[in-house]
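Here is one chain, start to finish.
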Amino acid sequence: MYLPIDLKTTTLYTDRLMLRPWTWDDLGDFHAYASVDGVGQMAGWNPHKSVDETRQILTKFMEHGNVFAIEHREDRRVIGSLGLHKPRFESLPGGENPYADLRTCEIGYVLAKPYWGQGLMPEAVRRVQTYLFEELAADIVFVCHYNFNRQSRRVIEKCGFAFLCEEEHTAKQLGKTYPARRYILDREDYYQR
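Its structure:
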């Protein structure tokens, strides 16, 4: 069972970040990082070619309400996004979904290149874990990364997720299929860490 997510009125804080709903004022910051080569490809999408493309995606973020804007509190800029999505179960071991009756979601994220390597994404993910388990009563949270995305793998390891399985993920926008790794964090492990 997918955990129903509506972030349209939710704001979370960490020492350095504010995770909040998107606004039209974020268009420039969003385009600035999403148009940089090497950022989107890590998450399976091409760099944005125009502000209009960014505007269309921002519209979806605002309508669906399942993606946080990540604002750097000191710089007062949006430097990335963190989405809470319905998990993809097509590649689980055994071919069936053993989590069908549990409250689950999958985290996905992207960060502007100048902010890589500063521990910001683990900070954001940990805060979202707290939100999911303690405020929304999630049973299980998943996260995946393409095997070539070592930075994402480090975030996942730092945040206490356990390796679940190898998968193949098709990045439709890139027109390629890549090996990927899926990780899991359940409620019991979250509270024991």
